[in-house]
Amino acid sequence: MVEVRIPEDLWKPEEAPQGVRVIWLREEGARVERGETIAELAVEKVQYEIEAPAGGRLRRLLPEEEAARPGAVIAAIEKGA
C-alpha cells in the first residue's frame, strides 16, 4: 500500500490555518494509474492537483470537502488490487 500525502511545501500553515479542502476527482475503490490526477486541494483561490504515486485501487481516507493540513495522509493506493 502506498500513502497519498498532501505535500508539506505547498503553503505555509499561517496562510491557511484551517487547512485546505480536498476535492476528490476519483471515486472510492476506483482503479487509478500512476500520475493520474485523483484529487484537488483548494487553498484560498488556488487549486493544486494531487496525482496517484502508484497504480492500484484508491482508498480515500479523508471525506470530500474536509480540511487537511500539510503532510496529512489523505488516501492510500492498494497496489495490485
Chart the SSEs and their pairings:
Elements: E1 2-5, E2 20-24, E3 31-32, E4 37-43, E5 46-51, E6 56-60, E7 67-68, E8 73-78
Antiparallel strand pairs: 1-8, 2-4, 2-7, 3-6, 4-5, 6-8
The low-confidence parts are: none
Q: Report the portion of residues in β strands.
A: over 45%
Can you list the strand order of the major beta sheet? 1-8-6-3
The helix/strand class is mainly beta
What does this structure look like?
It is a single chain. With 81 residues, this protein is an all-beta fold. Helices cover 0% and strands 46% of the residues. It is built from no helices and eight strands. The protein has strands spanning 2-5, 20-24, 31-32, 37-43, 46-51, 56-60, 67-68, 73-78. The protein has a four-stranded antiparallel sheet with strand order 1-8-6-3, with no helix packed on it. The protein has a four-stranded antiparallel sheet with strand order 5-4-2-7, with no helix packed on it. It is elongated, with a radius of gyration of 12 Å. The N and C termini lie close together (10 Å). The mean pLDDT is 86.
Q: Which key phrases capture this entry?
A:
8 strands; 4-stranded antiparallel beta sheet; 81 residues
What is this entry, summarized?
This protein is an all-beta fold and 81 residues long. 0% of the residues lie in helices and 46% in strands. The protein contains no helices and eight strands.
